[in-house]
């Protein structure tokens, strides 16, 4: 028999935890879960979205502390409309993906004010899990994956706590961890075989100025970048490993100088497109034919961290191995640098072969020759005068130019020049002031002044920025290159030799080129760096911390290489190899494998069914039956506040549902006896039987 809904407005819930039997512990966990879940996306959200989140979470906390009431629909509507208007105004700048993420977070934080029934609670949990998974778009390191797994377990604990409010938090947490671990085999299986579809979005590139080198460099920029311990890229060589002094990781070539900053060549000048679809190398004569290459070469894999730019890293003279590089459209530029068609918004892997002894552009056209001689009028007149004096001293031929270059390097080596990460400030980035007065600078100071001198002396030259060296990690047999390894050097063009690398740093601080940062530079870097949580900073003088750091980085490297690097192409290769392995088996062996597999699958299914049956046979707790009755009463419009005792709730039922008051009073008394009285086994058995009979009678009436 069904009763009409009777809801006393004076007893209506003022907070969401009263609307449907959500314990105080679960309410607090829900607020904490929201905060932690949204924290994973905090760096990707706009300031106004973070403000709305802070307001909503603060409001929820004040409701929990009973400092204020639940907001009415008008206030919730105002927050919703405000968020949507701001989202519409900023959607073009945010891009499609960020707009969708902002909408997801807005829905998630506002949904907490509309928890009126169990389905709302489920929606909250699902929205939270969506927020967590969305954060993997931006962060994919091993450390973040571990943290994310712990947060997911915390969310599972919230769900379990809702269904088992009487159990201890540690018990629910233990169960959530077990569920998570039990699901791991299925997740691993799906990771290998579930089709990897291309994303329907593009990761926003608003962070382009945050990481790495830029295509415009002023004197002092690289010194600032060298204060960062952030990882730039990792390199694993196939066989031979070059000497440290050969590890010049070419990134950006600067051919234009406006008197204050160096910039890349006009339009990028892309050529030699790689045909990834056919897997063939499209070779232009501007470079060389690899079939005719001679001298030492190195084969290696580069895994670059997100830079939100298009520049890639390689040793000279580089050619991308298109047979091993899948899914990345990479170009070779005429200045011998590598350029990605799309910005690097996630860890990106590519394979390179470098012919380190091959000359660069033995012949260049008149336009390129003249472009690398240009200097602005009235720029650094003292350096121009110095260059004219050198030009008058040496002949303008191959031998004379080599002698002129050597004299400039000797001056750097024998004069009072100082190599430092903290150079004096220059007025308008004046190279004159550096060369003749301060005489203290980092790599770009020396490379810039040298390149300018060469141009003023009539020798084509250009500035190259990239990275120098790398830290070898024996745990994973690879090199890590950090932002602090950023470097600048010069290239001069000599007849019959082509572009020749000239690094003035080698004349000032040979240790920087041969082994890396000196102890003095490391001390400067540690003193000036703002990253107080970097293990790299504290491991320089502590072997134990350094060993731990290298082990952790090796784990992260293998995670990046094998898990993050498991692309759709690699999945297709894996499945093809698996199919080939089955095909190569003899017929009788193949049949035996199939039979064994089916037998094992049947055994697993039978085991799972037996386990589910046994679980179903296990008696439910008394609280389980009591909560079911409370849920049915809630549907009738009668709610039990969490702070109300079962005995007091009987009086509420007597007023609002007198038809079942007598039976419910008996049911509540039996429930209280089972939960709160010390009964012996015989008494517990009799009382439990009467409790279940009473439950069935009430259930029939509701």
Q: Any overview of this molecule?
A:
With 702 residues, the protein is of the alpha+beta class. 51% of the residues lie in helices and 13% in strands. A 6-stranded antiparallel β-sheet has the order 1-4-3-13-16-17. Helix 2 packs antiparallel against helix 3 and helix 4 packs antiparallel against helix 5. It is elongated, with a radius of gyration of 35 Å. The N terminus is likely disordered.
Number of helices: 25
Straight-line N-to-C gap: 6 Å
pLDDT < 50 runs, ≥5 residues: 1-19, 267-286
Within the largest sheet, what's the order of strands? 1-4-3-13-16-17
Largest sheet: 6 strands, antiparallel
What layout of secondary structure does this protein have?
Layout: H1 16-19, H2 24-39, H3 47-64, H4 73-94, H5 96-111, H6 118-134, H7 142-163, H8 169-193, E1 216-218, H9 221-225, E2 231-237, E3 248-257, E4 261-264, E5 270-273, E6 297-304, E7 318-320, E8 330-333, E9 338-340, E10 348-355, H10 366-371, H11 381-393, H12 398-414, E11 418-419, H13 431-438, E12 440-441, H14 443-456, E13 461-468, E14 471-473, E15 478-482, E16 486-494, E17 498-502, H15 505-508, H16 510-514, H17 519-528, H18 535-538, H19 543-564, H20 568-584, H21 587-617, H22 622-635, H23 646-656, H24 661-676, H25 681-701
Parallel strand pairs: 11-12
Antiparallel strand pairs: 1-4, 2-6, 2-15, 3-4, 3-13, 5-8, 6-10, 7-10, 8-9, 13-16, 14-15, 16-17
Helix pairs in contact: 2-3, 2-6, 2-7, 3-5, 4-5, 5-6, 6-7, 7-8, 11-14, 13-14, 22-25, 23-24, 24-25
């Amino acid at each position: 028999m069904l009763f009409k809904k009777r809801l006393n407005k004076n007893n209506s819930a003022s907070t969401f935890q009263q609307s449907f039997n959500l314990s105080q512990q679960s309410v607090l966990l829900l607020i904490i879960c929201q905060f932690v879940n949204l924290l994973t996306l905090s760096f990707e959200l706009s300031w106004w979205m973070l403000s709305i989140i802070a307001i909503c979470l603060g409001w929820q906390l004040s409701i929990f502390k009973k400092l204020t009431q639940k907001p009415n629909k008008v206030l919730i509507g105002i927050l919703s409309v405000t968020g949507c208007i701001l989202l519409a105004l900023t959607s073009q700048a945010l891009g499609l993906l960020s707009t969708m993420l902002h909408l997801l977070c807005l829905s998630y934080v506002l949904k907490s004010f509309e928890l009126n029934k169990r389905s709302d609670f489920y929606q909250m949990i699902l929205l939270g899990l969506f927020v967590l998974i969305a954060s993997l778009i931006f962060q994919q390191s091993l450390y973040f994956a571990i943290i994310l797994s712990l947060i997911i377990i915390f969310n599972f604990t919230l769900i379990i706590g809702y269904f088992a409010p009487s159990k201890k938090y540690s018990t629910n947490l233990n169960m959530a961890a077990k569920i998570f671990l039990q699901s791991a085999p299925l997740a691993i299986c799906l990771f290998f075989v579930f089709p990897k579809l291309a994303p329907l979005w593009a990761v926003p590139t608003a962070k382009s100025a945050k990481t790495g080198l830029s295509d415009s460099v002023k004197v002092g920029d690289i010194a600032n970048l060298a204060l960062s311990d952030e990882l730039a890229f990792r390199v694993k060589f196939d066989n031979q490993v070059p000497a440290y002094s050969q590890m010049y990781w070419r990134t950006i070539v600067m051919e234009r100088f406006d008197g204050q900053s160096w910039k890349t060549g006009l339009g990028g000048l892309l050529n030699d497109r790689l045909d990834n679809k056919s897997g063939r190398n499209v070779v232009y004569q501007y470079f060389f034919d690899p079939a005719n290459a001679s001298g030492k070469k190195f084969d290696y894999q580069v895994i670059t961290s997100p830079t939100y730019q298009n520049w890639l890293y390689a040793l000279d003279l580089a050619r991308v191995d298109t047979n091993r590089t899948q899914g990345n459209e990479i170009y070779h530029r005429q200045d011998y640098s590598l350029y990605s068609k799309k910005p690097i918004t996630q860890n990106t892997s590519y394979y390179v072969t470098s012919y380190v002894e091959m000359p660069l552009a033995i012949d260049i056209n008149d336009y390129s020759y003249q472009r690398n001689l240009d200097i602005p009028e009235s720029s650094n007149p003292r350096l121009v005068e110095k260059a004219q004096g050198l030009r008058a001293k040496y002949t303008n031929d191959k031998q004379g130019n080599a002698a002129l270059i050597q004299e400039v390097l000797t001056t750097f080596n024998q004069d009072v020049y100082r190599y430092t990460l903290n150079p004096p400030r220059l007025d308008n980035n004046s190279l004159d002031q550096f060369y003749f007065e301060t005489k203290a600078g980092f790599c770009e100071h020396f490379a810039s002044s040298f390149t300018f001198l060469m141009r003023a002396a009539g020798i084509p030259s250009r500035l190259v920025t990239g990275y120098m060296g790398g830290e070898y990690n024996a745990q994973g047999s690879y090199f890590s290159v950090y932002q602090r390894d950023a470097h600048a050097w010069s290239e001069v063009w000599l007849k019959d030799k082509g572009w020749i690398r000239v690094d003035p740093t080698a004349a000032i601080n040979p240790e920087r080129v041969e082994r890396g940062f000196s102890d003095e530079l490391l001390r400067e870097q540690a003193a000036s760096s703002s990253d107080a949580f970097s293990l790299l900073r504290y491991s320089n003088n502590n072997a134990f911390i350094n060993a731990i750091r290298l082990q952790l980085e090796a784990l992260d490297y293998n995670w990046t290489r094998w898990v993050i690097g498991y692309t759709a192409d690699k999945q297709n290769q894996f499945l093809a190899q698996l199919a080939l392995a089955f095909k190569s088996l003899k017929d009788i062996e193949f049949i035996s494998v199939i039979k064994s597999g089916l037998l094992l699958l049947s055994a697993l299914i039978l085991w799972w069914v037996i386990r589910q049956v046994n679980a179903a046979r296990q008696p439910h707790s008394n609280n389980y039956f009591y909560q079911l009755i409370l849920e049915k009463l809630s549907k009738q419009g009668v709610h039990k506040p969490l702070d109300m005792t079962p005995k007091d709730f009987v009086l509420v039922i007597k007023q609002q549902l007198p038809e079942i008051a007598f039976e419910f009073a008996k049911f509540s008394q039996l429930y209280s006896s089972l939960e709160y009285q010390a009964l012996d086994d015989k008494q517990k058995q009799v009382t439990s039987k009467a409790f279940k009979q009473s439950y069935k009678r009430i259930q029939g009436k509701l």
